[in-house]
Amino acid sequence: MQKLDKAFYEREDVVKIAKQLIGKVLVTTFDGVVTCGRIVETEAYNGAVDKASHAYNNRRTKRTEIMFGEGGNAYVYLCYGIHHLFNVVTNVKDVPHAVLIRAIEPLEGIDTMLERMKKTKLDFSIGRGPGNVSKALGIATHHSGNTLFGKDIYIADDGFKVSSKNIIASKRIGVDYAAEDALLPYRFYLKENGYVSGKK
User: Fold this and answer.
1) Which CATH superfamily is domain 2-190 in?
2) Residue range 129-155, pLDDT digits in tens
3) DSSP letters along 126-184, please?
């Protein structure tokens, strides 16, 4: 597997990056335990001009400051006080673009994923939805700010090819507050994959 490099993340088009992350592999290694899954659903957040983004209007807080850093870092935030949501920061310093990883298809370390999710057998809930992505892979808010070029958390290309006709674009989930921006086709998912969350 070839780890994605800084040039991949530092490009200007966050929507294109979100689409190209479909099929890549998200890997974590904590305490010597490797878990990974293929990314099958993403959402792009277009920074200061996107009403659905935490950084809309260049809003800077202690939580969002990581989004204004360099591309290739992790942005992990807590949703509803329980779900740790993993995002990839893209573009260059001071341009707060990010891609939310919404679903993965488990590949390696499945026993560990089941243990983390308190399950006894593999089903589609393992890795379906952004909260379950983090839970299965052991990612939490204290990983926010981690580089994606180290050993703990990274995204890699294992040569898996996805035809663009098998990547579906739709509006994002749960961003109704974003007015007209809620309708933007910034969500991407792998066609007919059982791990994809929300409406197909």
Assistant:
1) Methylpurine-DNA glycosylase (MPG) (3.10.300.10)
2) 999 999 999 999 999 999 999 999 999
3) TTBSHHHHHHHHT--GGGTT-BTTSSSEEEEE-S----GGGEEEEPPSS-GGGGGGGGS
